[in-house]
Amino acid sequence: MSQSENYKAARARAEAKYGFLVHATVFAAVMVLLVIINLLTSPGTLWFIWPLLGWGFAVVLHGARVFVLGPRNAVLEAMTEHELRRSGIDDPHRKRQG
Questions:
Q1: What is the mean pLDDT of residues 33-46?
Q2: What interhelical angle do 3-41 and 49-63 show, nearest 10?
Q3: With helix as H, strand as E and coil as C, how does the chain read?
Q4: What are φ and ψ of residue 73, in 5° steps?
Q5: The pTM is what?
């Protein structure tokens, strides 16, 4: 990989992590607001739990995509290689033989 390609890959990883950080921060801020609204308007019914669970699940999936699966997703790599073969485009990352 060239220096430019390394920079682009590092930049993409950094943007993915930053995107998750923004998502998690907005989630936390909105959840605090919803808890306050819920407790002030209808303390007998704790409805804030439903958006917390739904959106929280999405935040967990986003975090898994960024930190667990990362840029080297085997399924994505296999699909990319398949598409390259179908279109007749050579994979620039594959080493050429002799």
A1: 97
A2: 170
A3: CCHHHHHHHHHHHHHHHHHHHHHHHHHHHHHHHHHHHHHHHCCCCCCCHHHHHHHHHHHHHHHHHHHHHCCCCHHHHHHHHHHHHHHCCCCCCCCCCC
A4: -80, 120
A5: 0.70
The Cα–Cα gap between 54 and 66 comes to 19
The Cα 90–Cα 36 span in angstroms is: 56
Query: Exposed (0-12), middle (13-18) or buried (19+): which is 27, by Cβ within 10 Å?
Result: middle
Residue pLDDT, tens place only, 54-64? 999 999 999 99
Rounded Cα distance, 51 and 34, in Å: 9
